[in-house]
Amino acid sequence: MSYQTFYRKYRPMDLENVAGQASIVKIIKNSLKLDRVSHAYLFCGPRGTGKTTMAKILAKNVNCLDLHDGEACGKCKNCLAILNGNCPDIIEIDAASNNSVDEIREIKNKISLVPSELKYKVYIIDEVHMLSIGAFNALLKTLEEPPEHVIFILATTDLHKVPVTVVSRCQCLDFHRIRENEIVRRLETIVNNENIKVDAEVLNSIANLSDGGLRDAIGMLDKVVSYSDSIVSIEDFEELNGIVSIERKKEFLKIIESSNIKEFIEFTDDIYNKGKDLAIFCQDLMILCRNLIVDYYTYQKCDFDVDFLLQFVDKLNDLCTAIRDSSNVRITFETKILSFLRSLNQKSTVPVEKTVLNTNIKEDKGYLDSQKDMNSLENFKNIVEKVSLEVAVEEKEPEKVEEVVNYNSSDNLAQNMERNSIIVNNCFFGASKNDLNTVKSMWNRLNDFALDSQLGAAACYLSDAVVRAASDKAIILTFDYESVVTRAFGMHDPISKVIEKILNHKYDVAYLTSEQWEKERAKYIENKNQGIPYVYRDLSELESPPQNIDVISQEKERTEESITDEAIKLFGENIVSINEGGI
Ligand SMILES: [Zn+2]
């Protein structure tokens, strides 16, 4: 028999053997047992975490004629047809290579035909975020009313690139990075099964390098096993992968900590000439620094100054990004680190105040006061957050990365909330039924932008929004889910542009969940009942410290007539969804 890679050979065939995704396994198993399989799934998560494997298992199990506790029998005619791999009812599409509207239209045309052999036709669309806007729109129509006999399983590493209109029509399951110990356990099973000898240290290193992706981990094992004919040692592994050993990495950190430029240049020269991969070296250093910092905070034990580590890990993070875009990795590596060393040298000659992160390493070793401790910890958290976001959006264009980072940080979240509450306030200040009707009557013009390469995604988001209230300056929009609201903040600029284009006028826009809106509306009615006027607030107060605002009273006198009636006049009795003409 021809050689099969470990990954294919050991790909789980049933739910029981799927590694590291216990909650997803449970959800799928239960829906199979209770016969409540959804017509559309969206599997999202980092690469190599089991999305496609799970899709294949689900496609088989849902078609099995003799299901036991959610698991396929593997013997019935449907199971056998699928296992043989030539079943026309399981259709796998790689959106990365088939991203045109035509491909999706073809699905649409064939979708009404009943399955030729199985119970369900299952469409597995991998890398679904790669579809063009047009293809997404075609898919959307298909997802809206799929026939009974069809199941869609979409998979993506980049959820934020999938239009929310598609996301909201699927059951979304988040695949997490797989824990290192689970990866090691899986690798051990393979090693034992294959009867090969591999140092435990090698398996740990693989798990560490694979960053939670089991597929990559198994691929690395495959490679290292074919490299060595007897016992696979850590040296073999490091040699093969261009990895610098942990002792050498600590040596390197000591050189940087003591800002010894001459030794730094020699060290770099040495590892470069030995063929080590500088990009991996930076990643590894970052992981090492992170582990040392965690050790410090957990066991109060560290051979390095923790402030130095925090500063350096931040530098490494920038360096990793710079290396990805660099045409000459070595030069980028050397110049960035040299500039860091220079800044260390400059700082160490200037007295530094205790409250600021101290770089005077020798004198300050082990010293931490509580304020500084907090600063360091806060910094570390920011860095970790930044790193994990960067990893999550690895394949995005740089400027988009910026956008995601921007709108997800807790600072910006607070700003967004504050901004929202000002706009809601201002909208209530000037809201009228007339303005609301005007906005609603023009909302269908969103369709004009559905295929726009720049504004299409924003238009798609807006087609799922409900306009709740409007003044001549502000609009309140609601979405069903908080996650969608968060994403709307992230797309604030294109959303504002689309709104300006369809309404021929600039508006401030507040994004709320339906639940938040109900609360705001209740508050509005209560305020009206108690005669509390809304006070116009300038959005520019966001950028400056809180100030006293002149009270501009909207209404000086209150009549006794029902204020609820007035609210109904403004917003309508039932909140009208205005996306019927949707795109
Ligand atoms: Zn079966």
The low-confidence parts are: 350-376, 386-409, 544-561, 574-583
The structural domain count equals: 4
Question: Can you identify the CATH class of the largest domain?
Answer: Alpha Beta
Termini Cα gap: 52 Å
Helical fraction equals 40-55%
Q: Beta-strand percentage?
A: 5-15%
CATH architecture assignment of the largest domain: 3-Layer(aba) Sandwich
Question: What's the CATH topology name of the largest domain?
Answer: Rossmann fold
Output the radius of gyration: 29 Å
What is the SS-derived class?
alpha/beta
What are the distinct ligands in this entry? zinc ion
Task: For this entry, give a set of tags.
binds zinc ion; disordered C terminus; 4 domains; 55% helix; five-stranded parallel beta sheet; three-stranded mixed beta sheet; 8 strands; Rossmann fold; alpha/beta
Summarize the model shown.
This protein is α/β, with parallel strands linked by helices and 583 residues long.
Structure overview:
With 583 residues, the chain is an alpha/beta fold. The chain has four domains: 6-174, Rossmann fold; 180-241, Orthogonal Bundle (Helicase, Ruva Protein, domain 3); 246-397, no CATH class; 412-571, no CATH class. It has helices at residues 6-9, 22-33, 51-63, 77-83, 101-111, 133-144, 164-167, 180-194, 200-209, 214-227, 234-241, 246-257, 261-273, 278-299, 306-324, 329-349, 361-364, 370-392, 398-408, 410-430, 433-442, 456-463, 482-490, 492-503, 514-529, 563-571, and strands at residues 40-44, 90-94, 121-126, 150-156, 171-174, 466-470, 474-479, 508-513. Strands 2-3-4-1-5 form a five-stranded parallel beta sheet, covered by helices on one side. Strands 6-7-8 form a three-stranded mixed beta sheet. Strand 3 (121-126), helix 6 and strand 4 (150-156) form a beta-alpha-beta unit. Helix 5 runs parallel beside helix 6 (133-144). It is flat. It binds zinc ion. Zinc ion (ZN) is lined by residues 64-66, 72-73, 75-76, 78-79.
